[in-house]
Amino acid sequence: MLPVLLSMILIALGIIHFNWATGGTFGFSESLPTKENGERVLNPSKIDSFIVGIGLTLFGFFYLLQSGFIEHNHLPEWVMRFGGWVIPIIFLLRAIGEFKYVGIFKRVKKTKFGRFDTKLFSPLCLIISILGIINQLV
After folding, report:
1. Total number of domains constituting the chain
2. Which of 16, 17, 42, 96 has its CA 20 to 30 A from that of 49?
3. How much is the pLDDT for 36?
4. pTM summary value
């Protein structure tokens, strides 16, 4: 059941990114790191949002494959093992961050993004990472 939970979370995050790629604004401003003066650190395009949405959705489908919910007779076992470690590592790195604007160890914390990152984004990435690691070990 853990892979199914991970897939639901990741596909939901993918849908949010697809929403941004098509012009949606729900949560968009809160999701972008800013300097203390409000200037954005990142200015992703709609294509960037679309690419991230594809990646998150593919990660979600990976876990559906791993769960057996979707059959994967054509994929070598090493792909499933390798992917099962790569995804949690990516989310662990995101949770740790780059030490200034993003992640658990960020220094800029009093911006709108900083507050959301502290309360939601980084903990969610850490949870995804931990669940992915547990999934690999069981």
Report:
1. 1
2. 96
3. 95
4. 0.93
Mean per-residue pLDDT pooled into runs of 10, the chain (138 residues): 97 98 96 96 96 98 92 85 96 98 97 97 99 96
Tell me 45's DSSP state: -
Burial class (CB in 10 A: 0-12, 13-18, 19+), 15: middle
Owning domain of residue 96: 1-137
R_g of the chain computed on alpha carbons: 16
If one counts every other C-beta atom within 10 angstroms of the C-beta of residue 136, the result is 16
SS3 62: helix
Token pair for residue 118?
């502290």
The pair of three-digit structure tokens given for residue 117, joined into one six-digit string: 């990152």
Residues 6+ apart with CB under 8 A from 89: 129
Beta strands in 1-134 (DSSP E): none
Instruction: Give me the helix-helix angle, 77-96 and 46-67, nearest 10°.
Output: 130
The amino acid that residue 26 corresponds to is: F
